[in-house]
Amino acid sequence: MPAAEQRQWLARGPDCVYLHVVAKPGSARQRILRCDARGLLIELNSQPSKGRANVELIAFLAELFGTPRGSVTITRGQTARLKTVRIENPQEARVRALLQAYS
Question: Which one of 36, 75, 78, 98 is most buried, by most CB atoms within 10 A?
Fold first, then answer.
């Protein structure tokens, strides 16, 4: 698979990255399960009610990218499983590690 196709789930912007995420709330573990054609499949413990899974997703991605929670925003898909997430000023080494692990 060409590199461009492998990384459709990640796009770089000025001082930020955008991730396409497929959230799987109500899972037993919190983790990145795999990458598929729609985006990174991320399992979350919280249920989707009252935005709990979104809050957990933001905290998980902030820790993963070494950035404050306020730097992570869901720009599309607040109430859907398929989301676009913007991460401001991520640590470049962590972005590279994620690309190596899931590309």
Answer: 98
Count of C-beta atoms within a 10 Å radius of residue 71? 18
pTM of the model: 0.88
Residue type, 87: I
Query: Quick one: fold of 3-95?
Result: Conserved Hypothetical Protein Mth637; Chain: A; (3.30.1200)
Say how far apart CA 40 and CA 43 lie, in whole Å. 10
Percent of the chain exceeding pLDDT 90 equals 71
Reading the block at residue 52, the tokens are 């709990």
Q: Are 18 and 11 in contact (CB under 8 A)?
A: yes
Place of tokens 């196709």: 5
Tokens of 4: 């461009």
Helices of type H across the chain = 3-6, 52-65, 92-102
Per-residue pLDDT at 92? 87
